Amino acid sequence: MTTPGEADDAGHARYMYRLRVSSTARRALLAEWDRCRWLWNECVAKAKSIHLRNKATGEKRTCGPAQLDRMLTQARECTPWLRAGSCVPQQQVIRDFGKSRAKAHKDIRERLPQRQRAGMPKWKKKREALPTLNYTRRGFRLKDGRLHLAGGIVLIVVWSRDLPAEPSSVRVYQDSLGHWYCSFVVPAEVRPLPKTGRVLGVDWGVKETATTTSDAHDLPHAEQGRKAQARLTRYDRMMARRRPKKGQAASKGYREAKKWRAKTYAKIARQRQDTGRKWAKKVVTDHDAIAVEDFKPKFLARSSMARKAADAAIGATKKALIEMGRKHGRDIRLVHPAHTTMDCARCGARTKHALPLSERTYSCTACGAVSPRDKNSAHVMLHRAGLNPAGAEGIRPAGALLPQAA
Q1: Residue 92's Cα: distance from chain center in Å?
Q2: Residue ranges of the chain whose pLDDT lies below 50
Q3: Are 344 and 350 in contact (CB under 8 A)?
Q4: Cα 279 vs. chain centroid, distance in angstroms?
Q5: How far apart are CA 390 and CA 213, in angstroms?
Q6: Residue 222, SS3?
Q7: How many angstroms separate the CA atoms of 273 and 287, rounded?
Q8: In the prediction, which pLDDT does 357 show?
């Protein structure tokens, strides 16, 4: 049973469902999206014009949600097309724009490197941006198993599972295959698991997706993308042969190849998600506290390991582990990844050189300990998180040394 305090600490969760959308509802959703996309682009234009004006005149005018809300009110008064849509998703567009712009300004103030910044909000092009509509509690209701949106839009929800509580908001969106989904935000449930008295350290990698202090909980690279590479190459060639010239409509064969290519990528994504969730469930069930490397794999996209790193889905697996730990009340501790491959898990000394990625064995220059590099890094996670293990089965006393690997 979840207490009110536990429910507040757990935060919120999203419950996603498939939608059955009629032709009438589809036209209404796309029309609503056209209005929201136009409003987003108007916000981008307004923000850019104020920035250029401030730069030229030295003024300090702002372009926050309050000013944009007044702009929306004036636009709805003089534009019947915009007034025909619901104000709820339009107001939410302004809030989302404000959050995105505030995050970009925060990254600039904190002088983050350019590659780590969120970036200013950009234009949403008609042929590139997929429809996404957000409704707060006053913009939707559930009646007789159907989702009723503001503006008279009625959608059939495929209830694959029950909602645990009353939702506070809903997002209706379309994926790259043309399928429609809705995701409800509800208070997250905490389902505590029995205590085990065991701890675990997790180190992320490319050869193996996750290396842990317990051999039984290592996550090997599933290579779903490599297994489907032959089909993807075939669809790429089909699209290349049928690619339309600029200004011409795509042929049926091109559209079919594009659809099958998108379906294959969607299947790979589902496989990676399923693998990560099953592994996270096993790890969380068997351990009370988990020290996880706070690894951000974005930089690997610009390296020679980009394809293999993307196929490993480290970011999605890490997210699944954190969410599973929150759901079951486990202690998940994120550890900064700096120098984890240089520190010795036995004596704590730091080597004078950085190990190359091709080197699979760690050799300590202080105590002479030799162990697999990733296993050593996994034990370092436990030390930095304040968890001193005696292997994967218990907790070692403070000051004790790890046994040297054979």
Answers
A1: 21
A2: 1-8, 390-406
A3: yes
A4: 18
A5: 10
A6: coil
A7: 21
A8: 56
The secondary structure of residue 245, as a DSSP letter, is: P
Distance (Å, rounded) from C-alpha 363 to C-alpha 360?
10
List the strands of the sheet with 146-149, edge to edge: 132-136, 169-174, 180-187, 12-20, 153-158, 146-149, 140-143
Residue labelled with tokens 């220059």: 365
The whole-angstrom separation of Cα 309 and Cα 312 is 5
Helix ranges restricted to H, 287-341: 306-312, 314-327
Question: Which residues touch 246 (CB under 8 Å, ≥6 apart)?
Answer: none
The predicted pLDDT at position 389 comes to: 52
Distance CA 184, CA 163 (A): 8
Find tokens 């995050």 and name the residue.
103
Q: How far apart are CA 235 and CA 229, in angstroms?
A: 10
Tokens 């842990």 belong to residue:
212
Structure tokens at 291: 């020290």
Q: Do 46 and 69 contact (CB within 8 A), yes or no?
A: no
pLDDT of residue 391: 42
**Residue where the block lists tokens 């350019």:** 114
Burial 101-124 (b: 16+ CB within 10 A, else e): beeeeebeeeeeeeeeeeebbeeb
pLDDT, residue 31, reads 96
Radius of gyration for the alpha carbons in the chain, expressed in angstroms and rounded: 26
CB atoms near residue 143 (< 10 Å): 8
